[in-house]
Design brief:
single chain; 54 residues
Length: 54
């Protein structure tokens, strides 16, 4: 059985693989990679912080 984090990782890989090929330095590819690598993992932490601060 696949865990939740593994399912999310597989989904992210599928989305990135489905992007059309292009310049690896394009702004949208870099911004999408930044979103998946740094912003999305912070969402649960921010949610828990908001609940904790109440």
């Amino acid at each position: 059985m696949v865990g939740n984090s593994e399912a999310v990782e597989e989904l992210i890989v599928a989305v990135i693989d489905s992007l059309p090929e292009g310049d690896k330095r394009s702004w949208w590819r870099r911004s999408l990679r930044f979103l998946f690598m740094y912003v999305l993992p912070l969402v649960p932490l921010v949610y828990l912080l908001i609940l904790w601060l109440g």
